[in-house]
Amino acid sequence: MLDRDYFDWLYGGFRFPDGTKPEYDGTFKEFQMFFMDWFRREREKELLTYPVLTCSVHLNEDGTPADEEFARSISKHAENGLSFFVYESKTVDSLSSCCRLRNQVTENTFSYTLGAGGISTGSIHVTTLNANRFVQQYPHGEWQEHLQPVIERMHKYLYAHDALIHDFIDAGLLTPYDAGLIDINKQYRTVGVNGLLEASEYETGGTDLDFYTEFLKYIHEQNVKDAKKYNVKFNCELIPAENLGVKNANWDKKDGILAARDCYNSYLFPVEDDSYNVIDKMRLHGEQATKYLDGGSACHLNLEQLLTADQFYNLILVAGKLGTNYWTFNVLMTCCNECGHIDVNTLPKCPKCGSEDVDYATRVIGYLKRITNFSLARQKEAGLRYYNKPKTK
Questions:
Q1: How far apart are CA 289 and CA 297, in angstroms?
Q2: In degrees, to the nearest 5, what angle opens at C-alpha 307 toward C-alphas 305 and 309?
Q3: Tell me: the pLDDT tens digits for 193-203?
Q4: pLDDT in tens, 89-131
Q5: Which of 8, 99, 303, 314 has the fewest other C-beta atoms within 10 Å?
Q6: Which Gene Ontology molecular-function terms are recorded (predicted)?
């Protein structure tokens, strides 16, 4: 979903065969709003994991939406129960179209692993660093001198895999590349990170924004350096680790590594801790640390109930001020096992048929599913999540 500035930047230079140019007002603007309303109503019948919706909001220098009408419109859709991601940026050269994607189009820099709208990009391979295990290999405060050689080694792994893909392309085994649907020169070799929260807890005793910033900056700078050395693109993500977060915690416990939880967190705050309010979470996912991340920086706000349109719009403003460029909200959806109705609110029984045989749905990390369809370990983790209660008058 694009606001006026994003639309003009992306399609302003395009011309149809008759010489006319695309217009934002009219069909395009109306269709976007129609689609969001239709998609919400379809989710009353099926959860519809895909597509993952993102609304791209261009900001003024003071952090307010440049297209206030668009921001107000999507806020109303949020009030009605449509769940989507919001991407906010003061420049329009960066687009997001899924829960893990940010693609800066005009610069030869970085992108999230799942690709960007209209750009044949994405990640060609991901190699992940267990940050918690890494920092515990060294005395407190001495991890910095050891991180560079680890990232250099990861880049070698990624470059070796890149050579293999080139061989497959040359052999005609990857026809989407031949057809121009994917451009290997636009793809990224991704350094994934998991267990960063746990690493911070071990090193500093809690969620330390300065620790996050320092750790991610080291990786970012090495990515830039080695990108020139190998003439390929490297990026850095907090990976979703839907399965790996559980595996890393189990492997570490078996090897005597201190693991604070059974599933390593995918965010920069502990989702089970009720002492963090919405603003705290947005601040931790703000510009200071996430400017060194190219993916996986989405701030997930788990809420007991839906926000009003005004509350949602105010969060857009807060995110703009804090530099929280990617965020969303999660309210447990009620799924009736009797009549199949799905309600966007968290309810003890089905509002349509009255049955108390209900399940609940939310995002595992980025993708919407019934909690009963999560893996057993993720079901346990989902049961620990704390849901903030929005303030009402």
A1: 9
A2: 155
A3: 999 999 999 99
A4: 998 866 554 544 455 544 434 344 433 334 555 788 999 999 9
A5: 314
A6: ribonucleoside-diphosphate reductase activity, thioredoxin disulfide as acceptor; ribonucleoside-triphosphate reductase (thioredoxin) activity
